[in-house]
Design brief:
heterodimer, A: mainly beta, 0% helix, B: mainly alpha, 4 helices
C-alpha cells in the first residue's frame, strides 16, 4: 500500500501494519484482507449498509435496481429518499422504486405512498396494494403548486341533475334527487345515479348544496336533504312559486350514511334540466 | 342470491334507530353501495386490461365481474391477504 501516514510517505509491504494516529492516503488503497473499523466493519455477521456500483445506498437492505437517472438512499424494508441526478427533483417513497424502464415497481406486496417535490410543486400520490415486482400505477392524492394552490383530485364530490328538461311533480316525502340521474362529475362514484343517494365513503364533514327551480303553482313548498332517511342537512328550505330553492348545509356523516333530497309537501314542482336544477356534495375533511 | 345476516343487540338497534329512519334500509344501502363501488373498480380495471391484451369484453357488467375473477384479474381480499402472507413467509 502506498500512501501517507501523517505527512510522511510510507510503503507498507509487511503482512500487518498498525497506524495509531490519523492517516491521510494520497494514493490508491487496496485492501486484500479483512477491513475493520469502529464505524464500518466488513466482519459484521450481516450487511449493515450497501453502497452499490450505481452509487445507491441501502441501509439495512440491498438497494433495488434503480433507474440510472436517479440516486437513492433506501432504508429498511421499503422507505427511500431519492433524487434525479440532473434535475431538481426529490422523492420520499414507501414500498416502491423506479426501475430501469422508468416504471414504479412494488417492493413488497402492499400499498404504495409517495411524496415528491419538483419545480416548487409538492405532490402526494398513492397506489393500491399490488404484488411485489409488479408495476404500480400511481394516483395523485394532493398537490400544492408553486403558487401555493392546493388540489385534491380524488376528494369525494358530485354534482347531479336531470338530463331530460321538464317539470316533475313530487308528493310529500318523494325523493327529488332520484330524478337526477346524470352527473357533471362524481368523483369516487359515491353518488348513485340509480336512486339519487350519496353514500359517505368515510367518516367526515360534508357540504351539500342545491339550486332547484321551483315551478310550483302552490306557495310554501319546501325541500329537505335527509341523512339516512330522517335527519335533515339543512332543515326545510322554502321558496316562493317560480323562484329557486337555493340552500346548503354541512353534516357530519359516518361511513355508510347516505343523503338524498326530498320534497316536504305535495304538489312540489321542480323544473329540471342541466341549467336550472342541480345539487351536489363535497367532503370537506 | 346470497344473504348476509347481521344480529344486533337491542342497544345496537337503538343506536341505529337513533341515526337512521330505517336501520334495515341503512344496512342494505351501505352494503350494496360498497359492492357497487367495488364492482365499478373491477369493471374499469377489467376493461383497461382487456383492451391492452386484446381480450373480448363481455356484454354485461355482471359477466365482466365474473370473468375478472375467473381470469384471476380480480381477487378476493382474502386471496390477496393470503398471497401477501405467503410471500412474507418466504
Amino acid at each position: 500500500m502506498a500512501g501517507y501516514v501523517g505527512t510522511k510517505a510510507v510503503l507498507l509491504s509487511t503482512t500487518a501494519a498498525n497506524v495509531g494516529g490519523d492517516a491521510d492516503i494520497g494514493g490508491a488503497l487496496d485492501v486484500g484482507g479483512a477491513f475493520t473499523s469502529q464505524g464500518i466493519d466488513d466482519n459484521a455477521t450481516s450487511t449493515a449498509m450497501t453502497l452499490d456500483a450505481s452509487g445507491n445506498v441501502g441501509i439495512g437492505v440491498v438497494p433495488s435496481a434503480w433507474n440510472s437517472a436517479f440516486d437513492a438512499v433506501q432504508v429498511g424494508r421499503s422507505t427511500a429518499l431519492w433524487s434525479q441526478n440532473n434535475y431538481d427533483k426529490m422523492w420520499l417513497t414507501t414500498n416502491t422504486y423506479l426501475d430501469t424502464a422508468g416504471n414504479f415497481k412494488y417492493i413488497n406486496s402492499a400499498p404504495v405512498t409517495t411524496y415528491n417535490q419538483t419545480d416548487g410543486t409538492h405532490q402526494w400520490s398513492y397506489a393500491a396494494s399490488g404484488t411485489a415486482g409488479n408495476t404500480a400505477t400511481l394516483t395523485e392524492a394532493m398537490r400544492i403548486d408553486a403558487a401555493g394552490r392546493v388540489t385534491k383530485p380524488n376528494q369525494p364530490s358530485f354534482r347531479a341533475y336531470r338530463a331530460t328538461a321538464g317539470n316533475v311533480t313530487y308528493g310529500s316525502g318523494n325523493i327529488i334527487s332520484a330524478s337526477m340521474t346524470s352527473t357533471n362529475y362524481n368523483v369516487g362514484g359515491h353518488y348513485n345515479t340509480s336512486n339519487g343517494r350519496f353514500t359517505a365513503p368515510i367518516a367526515g364533514r360534508y357540504l351539500f348544496w342545491c339550486a332547484l327551480y321551483n315551478n310550483s303553482v302552490v306557495s310554501g313548498r319546501r325541500i329537505r336533504a335527509d341523512i339516512n332517511g330522517g335527519v335533515g342537512v339543512w332543515g326545510q328550505n322554502q321558496s316562493h312559486s317560480y323562484s329557486d330553492w337555493t340552500t346548503s348545509g354541512i353534516a357530519d356523516l359516518s361511513a355508510g350514511d347516505y343523503v338524498h333530497m326530498v320534497s316536504a309537501y305535495s304538489d312540489t314542482v321542480v323544473f329540471h334540466d342541466v341549467n336550472h336544477s342541480l345539487w351536489g356534495g363535497y367532503l370537506i375533511g | 342470491m346470497p344473504d348476509i345476516t347481521i344480529t344486533l343487540t337491542d342497544t345496537q338497534l337503538k343506536g341505529l334507530e337513533y341515526c337512521a329512519l330505517s336501520p334495515q334500509d341503512w344496512a342494505e344501502n351501505a352494503v350494496t353501495e360498497r359492492a357497487r363501488i367495488a364492482n365499478d373498480e373491477i369493471v374499469q380495471m377489467y376493461t383497461n386490461r382487456a383492451l391492452d391484451e386484446g381480450v373480448q369484453i363481455p356484454a354485461t357488467r355482471e359477466l365482466i365481474v365474473a370473468d375478472a375473477f375467473t381470469r384471476g384479474w380480480a381477487k378476493t381480499a382474502a386471496q390477496v391477504q393470503a398471497e401477501a402472507e405467503a410471500l412474507e413467509a418466504n
